[in-house]
Amino acid sequence: MMTDKFTWLHRGISEIFPDQPYSQDPNENLILKLTTLDRPLRVKLGIDPTGVDVHLGHSIPVRKLRAFQDAGHTAVLIIGDFTARVGDPTGKSEARRQLTPEQVQENAKTYLDQVRPILDFDTPGRLEIRYNSEWLSKLDLADILELLATMTVGQMLAKEGFALRYQQENPIYIHEFLYPLMQGYDSVAVDADVELGGTDQKFNIAVGRDLQRHFGKRTQFGLLMPILLGTDGVQKMSKSLGNYVGLSEDPLSMYSKLEKIPDDQVENYFELLTNLNINDIDKNPRERQKLLALDIVSQYHSQEAALEAQQTAVKMVIKGDMSQTEAVPEFSLASVEFPAKLFYVVSASGLCKSSSEARKKIAGGAVRLDDERISDQNFTLDSPADLDGKVLRVGKKNFVRLVKN
To answer: What domains are there in the chain, each with its CATH number?
Structure first.
């Protein structure tokens, strides 16, 4: 049963498994384990460095890891430098491109810096940072055969992504079957009591429990957190979709994106990305957006930087002062194929949710390139070099500075 003492544990959680709240078995009742165990729990979170940027969606389980630290437990942060070479097939319609060790190493360089504002790196005994190449690279063929023998092909095909790909006759490569087993073996290697992950990670976390049981270890609890919708409020946060807020972004870029989060997502952002008491938050939608943006920017920069970003945003949005264009959030044109229609660039930049919405905004006279209003829906942009440094605006509140790289 949830008590005020464990509000931190349940906040932002979609599922805890196993979950037998009235059981007297601490292996089935996490609250009982928390209150009776005479040592800190070992709480695992794995991050595969398959890219260079961490965004707010990634931060959700990291924040829960910090909550466990604050409650006196040991965070075990695993940098998946070995598993990243395969790539998690979860939610993918085709095999991931395999990364080289050099690519993985390069990607991993900035990960710890980006999560440093969230985690407690300083209190002794509160954080272990491990790289899973430490144990996975040492497995020989006999060890791998033992792992493979713990699961059937039918069990693997029950994994959502695999099942869909098999049904659609998209190739599934044998090495992809190893990913859940390798991630699960991480839990064996670090003696995890709890593993954190998004709701899409239930299969992988359950495999970890099975492998712990196979190797005679105590089994972990799984804590699943929801997948964060992006700034468009429609699809999950993703850099490729342009609806993300990166942890390493400058204060104004972060603030400008967060103060425009759709009203129906604001409470969800408060619950998952802040420690504020939701019941105490102003009910005025605009004030809620501003508070959300201020709080999150403060977490990754400072309160002073967040307030300065807010003041700059007010000048640009309300007063129309675009003199500080170096502070305007940027959108790289590197991913755009030229010549390109303006409506496509407006949509790709995240200023509109879709190309059709962008067309309507252009036709309605709401789109400006610097000070020029553009109302031709078929307006074509010839070269990124001609656009470098220009400010693209939709209405008064939405704007980005275009950069060619």
So the answer is: 6-225 (3.40.50.620), 249-319 (1.10.240.10), 330-403 (3.10.290.10)
